[in-house]
Amino acid sequence: MTDQPGQGSERSPEQRLPVPRPPSDRVPAKAERFTAPAQIQATGGLTPERAAKIVRQSGNARWVAFLGVSIVALFVIIYYFYETGLPYQLSVPRLDQQADAQQVTSIERGYNLFQANCARCHGALGQGGIGPVLNDQAKLFAHLSPAYIKNVLTVGGRYVCGNPASKMPVWADTNGGPLNYIAIQDLINFIRAPSTYEFVVHDALLNEPVLDAQGHVVTFKGWLDPTFKPAPDATTVPNCYLGDGGPVASQGALPSGATILEVTAQGVKYDVTTLTAPANTAFGIHFTNKDDATSHDVDIRKTDGTTVVVDNPTINGPTDTTYAISSLPAGTYTFICSVHPTLMSGTLTVK
Question: Which pTM was predicted?
Answer without folding.
Answer: 0.48
